[in-house]
Write a structure and sequence with these properties.
single chain; about 270 residues; alpha/beta; nine-stranded mixed beta sheet; 9 strands; about 15% strand
Length: about 270
């Protein structure tokens, strides 16, 4: 497998030129362990995105968290297993989440737009083009699109399955220069670092075959839906399309600055030329 524990400085340098950037953040990064909203981290993330916009970049935020926030608001003991209850929690949580984002972004003078997607919209050529047009118009107006799967109506037949894959879809739609997936782990390891002290993190992935996914593990948090496998899958597909992609720890959102300045952060999937 053509992967590396060493940093590919030349590939990292290319991230400095990224103008269109998709940032994905998961539920575990948006909430505390007790399920309550982590306003401190959301505030930091918002400030970083607004500052990137001030630099002349165009940023799309793919944000999970609707179901988790809804579960907290409705005081449910855990993420429900029934589809109807998950959808109810999502409908409550999504409005709360967007209101929080709107307040934070407004403090820095930026307008946000909500885009909720399901797979069937992307599968149809006409609606896919309409979505792409909407993204392009919003970005041209310096509006920050905030994207989530439409969990309120989504069922198996029209689900993306996880927001990691959705972030790849969004990156492909807007022809992004970079995809950054913020997680609760530093990057992609050769084995689970929570279980093995000798685990090593990959700094560079250049082998974009499906073999790389065989090393990625499974489950995420009790409120989220994804694990490392979904992140690796999304980044591999994005890199196949020529989009440099990075999985990194989102506990400190300022890491986005380091990533886009070419520093050694997380695991980079090098774009195919």
């Amino acid at each position: 497998m053509n992967t590396g524990f060493e940093v590919n400085s030349e590939a990292r340098e290319n991230l400095k030129n990224a103008k269109r950037v998709v940032i994905k953040i998961g539920t575990s990064s948006l909430t505390y362990d007790n399920g309550h909203i982590n306003l401190h981290r959301i505030g930091k993330l918002t400030r970083v995105i607004c500052d990137l916009e001030n630099q002349g970049k165009q940023v799309v935020l793919v944000s999970s968290g609707a179901i988790g926030v809804g579960v907290d608001k409705l005081k449910l003991p855990s993420k429900p297993t029934e589809v109807s209850m998950r959808q109810a929690a999502a409908s409550v949580g999504q409005s709360i989440l967007m209101n929080i984002y709107n307040q934070f972004f407004s403090e820095y003078g930026y307008t946000v737009a909500q885009i909720l997607l399901t797979k069937d919209v992307i599968d149809r050529a006409d609606s896919k083009q309409n979505v792409t047009n909407t993204f392009n118009e919003l970005l041209a107006m310096n509006v920050v699109p905030i994207v989530n799967e439409n969990d309120t109506v989504s069922v198996d037949e029209i689900k993306f399955g996880d927001n990691d894959f959705l972030s790849y879809v969004v990156a492909s739609l807007i022809k992004a220069d970079a995809l950054i997936i913020l997680s609760d782990i530093d990057g992609f390891y050769d084995k689970n670092p929570n279980e093995f002290k000798d685990a090593h993190m990959y700094h560079t992935i250049t082998d974009l075959s499906e073999r790389i996914e065989a090393e990625a593990g499974g489950a995420g948090s009790k409120l989220g839906t994804g694990g490392m496998l979904t992140k690796v899958h999304a980044c591999r597909l994005a890199a196949e399309l020529g989009i440099n992609s990075v999985v990194a720890n989102g506990n400190e959102p300022e890491i986005v600055y380091d990533i886009l300045s070419g520093k050694d952060c997380g695991t980079m999937f090098v774009a195919k030329e």
